[in-house]
Structure to design on (157 residues):
């Protein structure tokens, strides 16, 4: 997901900082030189002080997203570490953007409250992509779910 949200520098604390720092160190251990090594060194310096600078948010976002998706965070740091990483993820650009799209979907679903559900269906719209359609008395809502997240597909009243 490409992030268009602007998030200022983030202060980290406790387990959020520990997990992010450990993951950045693990990546730095295999990146021996070059521009990316220098970027990782700058990120590590910030993480050690408890700050993710604005210019490093996207890279920390990518590192943490990969570690969460791969199951590495839970395997190495347990459920508590995973929860800390997820709290941090929600404050990073991708997590903030996903949270905003989830809120938009919840707002659209709220328009169906109190209506009688007449039909609910799920259709495959591509590899790893689905559309949930809800039809009520007087309204139809489709929600798209795929690797880019969740979003309202269409609303008909």
């Amino acid at each position: 997901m490409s992030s268009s949200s602007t998030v200022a520098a983030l202060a980290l604390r406790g387990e959020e900082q520990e997990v992010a720092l450990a993951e950045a160190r693990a990546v730095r251990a295999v990146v021996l030189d070059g521009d990316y090594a220098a970027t990782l060194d700058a990120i590590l310096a910030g993480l050690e002080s408890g700050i993710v600078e604005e210019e490093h948010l996207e890279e920390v976002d990518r590192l943490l997203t990969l570690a969460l998706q791969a199951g590495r965070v839970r395997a190495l740091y347990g459920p508590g570490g995973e929860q800390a990483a997820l709290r941090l993820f929600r404050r990073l650009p991708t997590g903030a953007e996903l949270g905003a799209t989830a809120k938009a979907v919840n707002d659209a679903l709220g328009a169906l409250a109190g209506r009688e559900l007449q039909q609910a269906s799920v259709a495959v719209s591509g590899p790893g992509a689905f559309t949930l359609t809800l039809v009520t008395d007087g309204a139809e809502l489709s929600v798209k779910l795929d690797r880019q997240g969740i979003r309202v597909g269409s609303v008909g009243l």
About this structure: The beta strands are 10-11, 51-52, 117-126, 129-136, 139-146, 149-156. The longest helix spans residues 72-91.
